Amino acid sequence: MKNILLSAAMLWSFTVSAQSNAVQDSIKTVDLKEIVVSSTRATSKTPMTFNEIKKEEIEENNTGKDLPYLLENTPSAVTTSDAGAGVGYTGIRIRGSDAARVNVTLNGIPYNDPESQGVFWVNLPDFASSVSSIQVQRGLGTSTNGAGAFGASVNIETNGLNKDPYVTLDNAYGSFNTRKHTAMIGTGLIANKFAFDGRLSQITSDGYVDRATSDLKSYFFSGGYYGKKSLVKFNIFSGHETTYQAWYGVPESRINDDVDGMNAYADRNGLSDADRANLLNSGRTYNQYTYDNEVDDYEQTHYQLISAFDLAESLTLNVALFLIHGEGYFEQYKADRDLADYGLNDITIGSEIITSTDLIQRRWLNNNFYGTTFSLDYQPSNSFKFTLGGAWNEYDGDHYGQVIWAEYASNGAIRHPYYFNNSLKRDFNIFGKAIYDLSDQLSLFGDLQYRTVDYTMEGDDNDGQTIDQSHNYNFFNPKFGVKFQLNDQSSAYASVAMGSKEPVRSDFTDNVAGTIPEAEKLTDIEVGYSRTTSNYSFQANFYWMDYTDQLVLTGELNDVGSSLRANVDKSYRAGIEMQVGYQLTEELKINANATFSKNKIESYDETIYNYGLGWDEYNADVISYGETDIAFSPNVVAGGNIDYSPVKGLNLRWVHKYVGEQFLDNTSSDTRKLDAYYISDAIGTYTFTGNSFKAISLKFAVYNIFNKMYSANGYTWGYRGGGEEIRENFYYPQAGTNFMIGLNIKL
User: Fold this and answer.
1) Cβ–Cβ under 8 Å, residues 107 and 160
2) Can you tell me whether residue 9 is helix, strand or coil?
3) 545 - beta bridge partners?
């Protein structure tokens, strides 16, 4: 606690969002939510499918796990953790769509990595402590900035303006030696025009999986000027993560405690005696990596300059500039590597010619992502609103490798470079969207977007292959919808949207030689109904997502743990999502949601490599399966919670999650799948106030209270040779029963 208080005293830092009623006589530009993020957010009149998570819910559930775990109880969401306990590398899939299809914006500014289009939450540890609301739009959603949203878009708004000075200390401790320490401070409103806020955080964990440690640090700093007709603010936030690698997963035989299967696996894959012993003796928390510094070490810093201007009573302009700089590496011990693969010469020692060596390599990323976003909002009346918005950004990234140690260094020195390539990606989009009320009961929505992408790669990849190539894409993405206000309590909507999306970096670099991946195209039809009364709410929506050339996960991973993908001609996702909330008594309420879906490829062909009877051939065998299930797309996802507040300040929550079976690849094979699982958490919060402090909250959470042994993610690969077909399945086991306790003090 002493360290946290010292950190708080040093924390004169700066972050700003604003609420419309925060500054007396200030205009609507003070409302960050309405101005800065409104161009990419849905509203009550938008005929789209979305959920919103408010600050109170975020604070109640924030015990240090990565941000995806704050979204796991939204419909159709499935979360997973490489280290097994929610800290470190984590991910989320929505409607079966992986992170490369989930668009994320921070205050309207794109966050997805431009090359992989993935979202690396580990780079922003404890970012949830600086968040005031999150909107999750499922399906294509409204036009957004950055990578296209093919499964969902997640729009994150940072904290609102605090008019009064404050200090907040938040500490938590839990299983696997997980610790979270956060200190926040704010000046309150100064001279009715300025405000400054900030945060320092550290999260550490040993992880559930062996050696899957995390050491995460972050800060959030910001300041803003609030005028009567203008708002200008500057945000800087950064995260530094050091995580021990747990990318490889656990072989199926180890999960099943199959000794014969583990020995066969070790024989097939040439494991050393030490690695075999590690496999046989580790249990389901097995981690193949044993080198003490097999870590991922990366720092990412964000700079945001955001401005809003009231040009006229009905016209508001918002412009933002941003820069994201990332730099770091992952380090690996590699045994018996060919010297030639690293640009090193064979060497002669005595009469022996040395052609290979054990070594330690580092593979680096050094990148800048910068650009601008803008929106012009015109609202001449309550019945009509038009937004012209868009963004331009450029990504400039270097990929390179170094040998930092080798048993036989040959002609190499420390940090010997062995590959380098650069990627340059430019992305521009412009959109116009409008909502028009034909009557009190009927609203029309239209949204037209044009997006162009230029992507160039030059240099050699880590495998020595030249990857020089350039690609250009031009997309037109229209969306239309209608909203019916049936009465004061009920409404319905229908929409149709079209979207397109370019391949990611690994689709080019890891694909079959000579094969150029196609851009994906999606038509998304959504129909929904909602009813809300004083103690009851119900929403249901049907979706039909029809894909052309969808890039589906093959089930395999590349050498950095990223999923490999391949185009399939025709595929679809169809389902119904339902949500219900009921206030049974003043103290007791229930919320539940469920998704029932079909996720199909009309005709799937799998390519598996055949090395022949004598292991001296290289043939590509094609297996046709007809209609199959899309990988990692459960047909049933359900969740809910029961909230009970028996006395003032005490809230008890029982949380439930069910995920149906998922296939590891697109063959619908029962021998390559994740079993269905149900998990349950219990969370308690007690808050009390006093004269010398604003509030003190005690938190206690028990996760997976029934100790379910399950895996939420995995991968598979296979080959033929010696007259056999081999399939290797790997899983990422999640922690059994574990806990977190926390203390939050607001001064």
Assistant:
1) no
2) helix
3) 524, 573
Expressed as residue numbers, the domain containing 598 is: 2-249+287-746
**268 and 308 both lie in a single domain:** no
Residue 460, pLDDT score: 94
Q: What is the DSSP string of 26-71?
A: --GGG-HHHHTSGGG---TTS-SEEEEEEHHHHHHH-SS--GGGGT
User: Does the pLDDT value for residue 633 go beyond 90?
Assistant: yes
Q: Are residues 241 and 259 in the same domain?
A: no
CA dist 28 and 196 (Å) reads 20
Q: 3-state class of 481 per DSSP?
A: strand
pLDDT at 558 over 60: no
**519 and 539 belong to one structural domain:** yes
d(CA 346, CA 567): 41
Closest CA to 659 of 704, 581, 595, 709: 595
Which pTM does this prediction carry?
Answer: 0.92
Distance separating alpha carbons of residues 92 and 70, to the nearest angstrom: 10
State the DSSP string of 660-711: --EESSSS--TTSEEPPEEEEEEEEEEEE--SS-SEEEEEEEEESTT----E
Confirm if 98 and 554 have CB atoms less than 8 A apart.
Answer: no
Please say which residue of 286, 307, 340 terminates a domain: 286
Task: List pLDDT tens digits, range 140-154.
Answer: 988 888 777 888 999
Residues, the chain? 747
Contacts of 602 (CB under 8 A, 6+ apart): 568, 569, 570, 571, 572, 627
14-28, 65-79, 248-262, 289-303: least confident range = 14-28
Top mean-pLDDT range of 24-33, 108-117, 296-305: 296-305
Q: Are residues 269 and 408 in the same domain?
A: no
Q: Is 214 exposed, middle or buried (0-12, 13-18, 19+ CB in 10 A)?
A: buried
Alpha-carbon dihedral sign for residues 75, 81, 82, 84: negative
Angle at alpha carbon of residue 87, lines to 238 and 594, rounded to 5°: 110
CB 295 within 8 Å of CB 361:
no
The answer to whether 601 touches 544, Cβ cutoff 8 Å, is no
Q: What is the pLDDT of residue 423?
A: 96
Average of per-residue pLDDT across 369-386: 95
Neighbour-count burial for 155-178, b at 16+ CB within 10 Å, e otherwise: bbbbbbbbbeeebbbbbbbbbbeb
- Is residue 506 within 8 A of residue 558, CB to CB? The reply is yes
Q: What digits encode the pLDDT tens for the residues 267-288?
A: 999 999 999 999 999 999 999 9
Domains: count for the chain: 2
Angstrom distance (rounded) from CA 344 to CA 339: 5
What CATH number corresponds to the domain at position 33? 2.40.170.20
- Where are any strands of DSSP class E within 177-229? 178-186, 194-205, 214-226
Residues 227, 132 share a domain? yes
188: which residues sit within 8 A by CB, 6+ positions away? 162, 163, 164, 165, 166, 195
Half-sphere exposure of 200 (CA within 13 A, CB side): 14
